[in-house]
Design a protein that fits this description.
The chain is an alpha+beta fold. It is 46% helix and 18% strand. The longest helix is centred in the N-terminal third of the chain and has 33 residues. It is elongated, with a radius of gyration of 29 Å. The N terminus is likely disordered.
Length: 352
């Protein structure tokens, strides 16, 4: 009986050990081969130590190889480091949008700004009909629609959010004066003197009937995101926005300004299309970093646009690939943002 039990134990061990041998042998061989450069380096500097304790070289080599594999994994599949902004400081959100809520100072960065004392607020509300009439003339020539917004994942239905940008993060479209010369003149009237460079974005926004834009975080707290109602079929609760815990409705000829960095959403549960003018206005405290902010946010727009193209999704395959692509666009945007060269190409690319 003892012999039979020993034979059964032997057969069990062989069943377990043979597969392990075939798995572990190539693995150990690969590790030893890969660690040879480390072992050779140790042998060059410490020949006597390696000769007496050869196993130390193998252990160190395998340890270095393991560390290299770990760093490679971190580099390819984890998010680049991000420190939350100092409360009240400039925030740029690429890849780390949720952290703004954890660090912001609500007195400095409220959901909705009070801009009633701003001169430009009065001018825009006073001359809103000029802007609306130019928009209507443009719509009459383009089947009543603007171009679909590129970030389709935020829409309740395909192409329900449509836009037309005259100026996008400091890059002015060469065609802006062709159809909207009066609108751009209103901008000049509203922002004179030292305020002339504060307007970094001018965009018409269309929201189709019975549609909504999913909750999302914006790109920065460095601007006032102003909504001026132009063609509004209804107000709250049928159509409006929610920024954080506050709700705002659109009214024709009236504007409000909110902090785009906070979590927000929009909806239009009416049978008519909603048209507004979005104006991005730099906050005075961040004007010294205006060009940096524009290039940074515009690079995020271009990155998302490229990722939406077929066969180009790899630019967001890993967090570090996304980071390097964003850095490349940031570098290229020096020409259109700082020098005004290539602005037409940027707007064409965003519409393509």
């Amino acid at each position: 009986s003892s012999s039979s039990s020993s034979s059964s134990e032997t057969s069990t061990c062989s069943l377990v050990c043979k597969p392990l041998k075939w798995i572990l042998a190539p693995l150990c061989g690969t590790l030893c081969w890969a660690s040879r450069p480390v072992v050779n380096t140790l042998n060059y500097f410490f020949p006597s130590l390696v000769k007496k304790h050869s196993h130390i070289g193998c252990v160190v080599g395998i340890g270095v190889l393991g560390a290299a594999c770990y760093l490679l994994y971190r580099h390819l599949f984890t998010r680049p480091g991000f420190d939350p902004p100092t409360p009240g400081d400039l925030y740029l959100a690429h890849g780390c949008r949720k952290k703004f809520e954890q660090a912001c100072d609500m007195e400095e960065d409220p959901f909705v700004f009070d801009v009633s004392d701003e001169k430009w607020s009065d001018v825009l509300e006073e001359k809103w009909e000029i802007i609306r009439d130019e928009l209507r003339a443009y719509l009459d020539q383009h089947d009543g629609k603007l171009a679909p917004f590129g970030h389709t994942h935020r829409m309740s239905s395909k192409s329900c959010w449509r836009v037309l940008s005259l100026r996008l993060w400091g890059v002015t479209s060469p065609d802006s004066s062709t159809h909207f010369g009066n609108t751009m003149q209103v901008m000049k009237d509203a922002f004179e003197g030292d305020n002339a460079n504060r307007v970094v974005g001018v965009t018409f926004s269309q929201l189709e009937p019975n549609s909504d834009i999913a909750p999302h975080y914006g790109d920065t707290n460095g601007n006032y995101r102003v909504h001026l109602g132009l063609i509004v079929p209804a107000s709250l609760p049928d159509a409006g926005m929610e920024i954080g815990t506050e709700q705002q409705g659109w009214e024709e000829g009236k504007l409000f300004a909110f902090n785009d960095a906070h979590f927000h959403r929009a909806w239009n549960n009416c049978d008519g299309r909603r048209f507004i003018l979005i104006v991005d206005i730099m906050r005075k405290r961040f004007m010294d970093r205006r060009k940096h902010l524009c290039r940074y946010v515009m690079a995020s727009f271009l990155l998302q646009r490229v990722a939406n193209f077929r066969y180009f999704g790899f630019v967001k395959a890993t967090k570090w690939m996304e980071y390097y692509t964003h850095s490349f666009f940031y570098f290229c945007l020096f020409l259109p943002v700082n020098l005004g060269i290539g602005s037409g190409f940027v707007h064409w690319f965003m519409r393509s």
